[in-house]
Amino acid sequence: MGGPDTRGAWHADGELLAAYHDQRLDAAACWSVEAHLTSCADCRVQARALVDPARLARLRAALIDTVELPRAGMAERLLVRLGVADHTARLLAATPALRGSWLLAVAAVLAFAVLAAWTNPGPDANLVFLCVAPLLPLAGIAAAYGPGVDPTYEIGLAAPLPSFRLLLLRATAVLGTATLLAAAASLALPQLGPGAASWLLPSLGLAASSLALATTVEPLRAIGITAGAWMLAVVVTVMPPAPSSVLFAMAGQVAFAALALLAVAVLLVRRGHFESDRGFDTTPRFAARRLR
Amino acid sequence: MITPAPTVRVHDLVMTFGRTHALDGVSFDLMPGVTGLLGPNGAGKTTLLRVLATVSAPDSGSVHVLGLDPRHIDQRLDLRGRLGYMPQEPGFHARFTAFEFVDYVAILKELHQRRARHQEVRRVLELVGLGAVRGKQIKALSGGMRRRVALAQALLGDPDLLVLDEPTAGLDPEQRLRFRELVSRLGEGRTVLLSTHQTEDVVALAQQVLVLHLGKLRFAGTPLELAGLARGHVWQSQERDPGALAAWRTGTGQHRNIGNPPAGAELLEPTLEDGYLLLLGGDQVEEAAA
User: What is the rounded CA–CA span in Å between residue B129 and residue B203?
Assistant: First the structure.
């Protein structure tokens, strides 16, 4: 560029620019220098010489990054605001089981279970809710990660981030969300009190067991086995004439707390197995079969 | 001249799905540069590429990529950091923008440093010519653009090995040309293995060719050598030669025949496609010529 400077009759001299750079100017002088710099290429060149080029490059990169970055989705922004690291938030934002449609479905199931409680007054009114609530995180985990669930599953297998870490990360988020929703729904149950929260420990126990089991079998199968075992336990213990189940009594609660702790311990001990034995072997084979 | 060491060594690879032998004792070495993998549908190309991308483990046999053995977990993770993989049917999180999607894969590749990662994402999108649409949602992009997004994610981190499964499928001629330019540039100093149905892609790009058929490696060599297989087996005639494995009328009105020529036939210079068709022979040729 170049050409005559038609805006201002003066140029910022070296002394003035140095004072500006060292932040020795008062506000009015500062604004005046800045206003001049935006319109005068010659003085910009002079001013640039005063600044460390590395710092300029850094500032420029930061500026471009901020201006050009596409606005993240709502879920992602919420997660970042909650203090989740931005890369973790992106991994979670891609979870099918954290989508609005999925959360709506979970909320609907919970609403129906609450409704069922209200239409069936009696000492066992909460039973349907208590039996259904622990299944929801399991369904969510099934829809959180895996072949046919995550569209980038195949690309992810060839990437260094261990797939088990991704599964755990998403399972935790899904479990947390489902637990919050179920807790909110349980406040609407007809019989409030400690009994209305007796879905919580089974819920945690089942979710942890399914993940622990996923270090040995296919994640979807692990979830199927866990859910099946729960339903079987419900059917067996709720059989008439017993209208309530031992699962939600003290003995059952203690058992599920123990199960949750045991499962977490297994998970910690066997966390390497998902990647070394299965991630590279059966899971992809399963995926390959689907592709063919 | 010093011959460079092979970057990929595959030895006696076997992979079965039920009773199907997807790979049946496949062995070869790859050098830096572009290698084309040819073969009909169901030949085992995708299975082979998945093994090289460390997505699936073979039943038996060994693979060494860049000196690393993916059977060992730490070497496998190392290798995953140095390879780029574009699957045949890359899935997308359709709500993500092109930028967000590639950024997502960059996170899977453990580029955690935010600003450096964003810079890398911009670089690869620029490289495939999608810089201008990086803010668009993937579901709003055309099929050809989506394939380029898939290619962009494979280029993250400047990998030493690129495994591309039918990267040119669904590209129009101009996009294909741009793709060739890009891949030939990437092939300088890197190892690129790409599967394709297009023999022209191989002619245009590849220094080496592999032909896979029914799980067996039927050919490994240069494109010229593959074409050379058909030397003396391609001839021209007024009418379709009933003895030919395949014959078709060309633009000149003459028939081009492949097979065993009759005595005194007017022989033609073979192309890579002729060599490929002849190699697969019989029913395969009928299918390709149909």
Answer: 24
Report the DSSP pairing between strands B33-38 and B208-213. Answer: parallel
Q: Which of B71, B79, B107, B109 to mutate to test binding with chain A, by most A CBs within 10 Å of its CB?
A: B107
Place of tokens 């045949």: B88
Q: Is B185 part of the contact surface with chain A (CB cutoff 8 Å)?
A: no
Calculate ∠ Cα B184-B190-B192, nearest 5°. Answer: 65
- B149-177 pLDDT per residue, tens: 999 999 999 999 999 999 988 788 888 88
What integer pLDDT is reported at residue A274 of this predicted model?
66
Contact A158 B95 (CB under 8 A): no
What is d(CA B105, CA A90) in angstroms, rounded to the nearest whole number?
10
pTM for the structure as a whole:
0.81
State whether A288 and B47 contact (CB < 8 Å): yes
Would you call B81 an interface residue with chain A, using a CB distance cutoff of 8 Å?
yes
B213: Cα within 13 Å, side-chain hemisphere: 14
In sequence order, what are the residues at sequence separation of 6 or more whose Cβ sits closer than 8 angstroms to the Cβ of residue A36?
A: A7, A8, A10, A11, A12, A43
Min Cα separation B146/chain A (Å):
13
Residue A282 has pLDDT above 80, yes or no: no
Helix (H, G, I), strand (E, B) or coil at A265: helix
Q: Over the stretch B221-242, which tens digit does the pLDDT of each residue have?
A: 999 999 998 888 898 888 888 8
Half-sphere exposure of A32 (CA within 13 A, CB side): 14
Tell me what ipTM this predicted complex has.
0.83
- Rounded to a whole number, what is the distance in Å from the CA of B221 to chain A's nearest CA? 28
Type of residue at A266: V
Contact (CB<8Å) A161/B110: yes
Give contacts of B97 with chain A, Cβ < 8 Å: 70
Chain A residues touching residue B114 (CB < 8 angstroms): 86-87
- Identify the pLDDT of residue A2: 43
- Helices B282-289 and B272-280, axial angle in degrees (round to 10): 130
Quote the distance between the C-alpha of residue A21 and its chain's center.
44
- Is B184's Cβ below 8 Å from some Cβ in A? no
Pick the residue from chain B with its C-alpha nearest to A151: B91
Query: Is the separation of the CB atoms in B211 and B33 below 8 Å?
Result: no
